[in-house]
Amino acid sequence: MRSTLEDVAMEAIVTGVCHRVDPRSALGVALPTPEQETGRTRLLAEAIALLDPVVERHVQQPGTLALMARCLQALHRETDDVASLRRAVGLWERAVTVDAASPAVRHDLGAALIDLSAYEGGIAHLTDAVRHTQEATLSYAATDRRKATYMCGLSRALCALFERTGQDMVRKLALGEAASAAALNGEPVPAECGYALGAALLTSYEATGSMEEIEYAVTALRQVVDLEPHPESLRALARALCLMYPTNRDERLIREAVETSRRALAAARPADPTRYRYLQQAAHARLLSHAAHGGRGVIDVAVPLQRLAIGSMPEGHPGRVAAIGVLADTWLAQFEKTQESADLDGAFEATLVAMRLSKEQPDHHRHLARYGRGARLAFESSGDASHLQRGVRATTKALKTDDLPKDLEASYLLQTATLLIDYTDQNPDDELRQAARNLLSACVKIDGQEPHVLAEAGGRWADLAIAAESWLEAGMAHFSALSAMWRMTGMEVSRESQESTLHRFSGMASSGAACLLQAGKPMNALMVLELGRGVMMTQDLDFYDEIRALEHSAPQLSRRLSEQLKDRDEAAAMLGSRLIVAGASLPGDGRIGDRRRIAARNLKLLAAEVRKVPGHERFLEPPSDDELLAASGRGPVVVVNLSRLRSDALVVQPSGVTVVPLPAVTPAAVDSLVAAFQDAVTQADAAANDTMLDGLAWLWDNLAEPVLSVAAPAEHHSGSLPRLWWCPTGPLSFLPLHAAGHYRSGDGRTVAARVVSSYIPTIMALRRVRARGADPSAADRGLLAVAVSRTEGDEAPLPGALSEAAEVAKAHPAARILVDAEATKSSLLRELPGYRRVHFTCHAHTDTRSPSLSRLVLHGYDDELTVDNIARLDLSSVELAYLSVCEAARPGAEITDEAVHIAGAFLIAGYPDVVGTLWSMPDATGRWLARRFYRQLSDGSGPAHALHHTVVEAHRRAPASPLLWANLVHIGR
Question: What is the predicted pLDDT for the residue at 582?
Fold first, then answer.
């Protein structure tokens, strides 16, 4: 069986070939050649020996010259012998002089010149390659397919020339030739043309950063690989995936890149002269995987793969220094994982070599900065602060480079500041500390930088400003970091990556708000909390509500928005469903992800058009102060901010924001209370109810009573109770603030005795929910009751589900009940738009790590309705969703500020009033609560008041059992 490049490389790694070569003697390691490859070489050598005298006798026959040239080029590809390639070029040049009109000869000569240019500097070979391949394309005798081949050859020559010269016109010509070749033969595009187009788009993208080009490149190359999984196509696709990853941080791309680069290695020959490209691509994909997965990626074989790549490069290759730099990065990444000194030594050796070789080159600054990164790791390993001093000097020198790109300037500023912070932690120095703050401040002001750099710089700047008690500066720093978060969670980013980013920024908005409160800026604090919380919900509400608002003023734009949103949402739902089933990525996820990303990009473009429509100029813009205050017109909104610095309630009223300090409400105290409540829910006995009563009393004393003294003073009560909306942050979202009170004393010290409570994830979400117009025809549409008493899975039966649904249906003249097997995902998606109210009684699965995958469990095995499925519905004429299911309003444990839960999904879908649960409850209790709630609705109460009265009555019936009545919450208007 023939060996592949993967076989030979892995054998070299496993047998320790790379490990035995000391980096100080050689960074590159030669790849052993399999015996079968030497057999091919012998056959080619024999063929050349036979052809030699023939070529000498028939020097004027182009066919003979071309045959000999092909044999010599094949020998070069087996042995990497440059002399054979040079001789092949000479023979083709002779063939051109004999038959100048032959397009095939000119095409082959151009390809050989491109190969030869990798071994020799300058652009002479590439200029000749362009000339010959261009002549080939002008041949009128060529068929369409042959002409397309020649155009692909010209595109390849132009790409190579652009990489050397950077001339923009050459880039555009390369793209144009590839696109014309792809269009010449119609659909399906031949693999050769698709590859040329993908390669040209990749080359262009690296110069322009155009999202359209990288998306098109990935799509084109995926189609090529499906047609012909040629090693070069596989490598190009892996490269494209690696290039696309930084644009959206979708970890599926990196997983696909690692696998595709492995397939490329498995398809390539060990003696391929370009084998270094395959080895380097495989190493690079693993390096990115390591970074993407927080140090848990497949970095282990990346170092030997990169060393084998360098060892396989031609002498004098222009990319050799850059490859050595990548080797240093890879060694540094491996050191972060292994903490072995040999890895750090290897990284420094590679860095020093790259610094020496690049001294007169324009990218010398990259290697200086790399030394700075290594110096910081050396300090962390040894504790020797002199490493930090050397790192500062190297990175500062890199910063002084003329015409330094802005994104790199930002990165180097951050690195220098970080080194200074570490140094002053060991050797306190106020001036150096201030210098670090100044560097970070300068860093966040640079436009167009990577959001991850902005996020880290903003976070570090905030820490320094807090330590210096410079509160307004700290607030500005937090705002910078949150701006990066918005860019990192844009519409083109997958749900999985959005949630990962939001977890990383968890608590950032609360910390920033606390700093601004310290600075005496309550309105700014409120704005930071609005921008830093409910990010995913805000995006979805904005688009769905805008589609409705544009139906009359700009119907075509509304329709286009709706189509793209549907495309994005269908792709996102497919990815979510596949992840639930498999627990990991599946083949084909990449194409589904492409569809979602392209639709999301189109939505961003359409958003710019929306802002041109009169009355919609502020679409997707942050809210104004007046808009935030106006949301409290029907009752105060209480934003409860929890942070290590300080905790406060921001009572928002039309007249302004009142700050209520909450000194006892510390993160530690709240965490302890949440844990006690969770234990109580699990135990569900008398002692558990006592624990919960104690917790509710603590919430009254330390949070609710101080808030209500401002938001709803007892002496001002007359008539019906006022409304109040709670907007908690962080782990406070797990607690029933609406149920806080002293219930044992019976003296009226409870929230329920003072206000009718509702919850809302953000103030702007409340405004958008209220802005939805009511459909007059909705009054004639009744209720859809969904009862799943048993499933085909292993969920416990819910024997009371059917009777609860039947009782609820009695309160509605027009009602339909879907029972067990009738309640399928497809039937629900079809039926929900037809009813103004929906009542669910079934099991739910709450995914605490990825709350977008939380779901309602239906009857069929694996038949589930996820948060994403629900949120993507466009139910503009609905009124109420009552969710008699476990933990429907419980947020994800890692992104508590996002309100990504089942109840929140129904709010996004269009239901302005949603009733959900914070924890599970017995069947009988659920039936009683639902019956009382709908009776209150029938008597004319609104949903919030109906739930309030229901809970008050439940408390009267079982005052010592808050587990039975404190869990129901109203979310919405």
Answer: 39
Is the pLDDT assigned to residue 779 strictly greater than 60?
A: no
Average pLDDT of the chain is 87
CA distances from 701 to 664, 709, 734, 942 (A): 9, 11, 18, 29
Q: Among 142-156, 229-243, 736-750, name the one with the lowest average pLDDT.
A: 142-156
Q: With contact defined as beta carbons under 8 Å apart, do 181 and 148 qualify?
A: yes
Higher local confidence (pLDDT), 623 or 727: 727
Query: What are the backbone dihedrals phi and psi of residue 146, each rounded to the nearest 5 degrees, phi first?
Result: -65, -40
How far, in Å, CA of 93 to CA of 109, rounded?
7
First to last CA, the chain: 70
Question: Which amino acid would we find at residue 757?
Answer: S
Residue 913's φ and ψ, nearest 5 degrees, are -130, 125
Angle formed at CA 317 by CA 191 and CA 164, multiple of 5 degrees = 65
Distance (Å, whole) CA 732 – CA 134: 69
User: From CA 650, how far away is CA 525, in angstroms rounded?
Assistant: 9
Could you count the other beta carbons within 10 Å of the beta carbon of residue 779? Answer: 11
Q: What percent of the chain has pLDDT over 70?
A: 91
Instruction: Please state, in angstroms and rounded to a whole number, the distance separating the CA atoms of residues 569 and 494.
Output: 11
In angstroms, the CA 410 to CA 454 distance is 8
Q: Which of 136-145, 251-260, 374-383 has the lowest mean pLDDT?
A: 136-145
At residue 861, the pLDDT reads 76
Cβ pair 154, 116 in contact under 8 A: no
Strand-pair category, 843-845 with 723-728: unpaired
pLDDT in tens, 152-173: 999 999 999 998 888 999 999 9
Cα 713 to its chain centre, rounded Å, is 46
SS (H, E, C) 577-613: HHHHHHCCCCCCHHHHHHHHHHHHHHHHHHHHHHCCC
For 328, the 3-state DSSP assignment is helix
Q: How many residues does the chain have?
A: 973
pLDDT single digits (tens) 627-639: 999 999 999 999 9
Instruction: Return d(Cα 351, Cα 374) in angstroms, integer.
Output: 9
The residue with greater pLDDT, 37 or 228, is 228
Q: Which of 855, 858, 870, 840 shows the shortest CA–CA distance to 795? A: 858
Strand (E) or helix (H) holding 641: strand 637-641
Q: What residues contact residue 455 under an 8 Å CB cut-off, 6+ apart?
A: 481, 484, 485, 488, 504, 505
| Alpha helix (H) residue ranges in 339-469 | 341-357, 364-382, 386-399, 406-426, 430-444, 451-467
Dist CA 923 CA 706 (whole Å): 36
Q: What is the mean pLDDT of residues 509-518?
A: 96
Q: If you ran DSSP here, which 8-state letter would residue 209 be given?
A: -
CA-based radius of gyration for the chain: 33
- DSSP SS3 for 968: strand
Other Cβ atoms less than 10 A from the Cβ of 21: the count is 17
CB burial string 510-547: b at 16+ within 10 A, e below: bbbbbbbbbbebbebbbbbbbbbbbbbbbbbbbbbbbb
Q: What is the 3-state secondary structure (H, E, C) of 374-388?
A: HHHHHHHHHCCCHHH
**Token output for 739:** 């149920």
Q: How confident is the model at residue 578 (pLDDT cuts 50, 70, 90)?
A: very low
880-883 and 815-819 beta bridge pairing: unpaired
- Poorest-pLDDT segment among 503-507, 691-695, 883-887: 503-507
Count the Cβ atoms, other than its own, within 10 Å of residue 255.
21
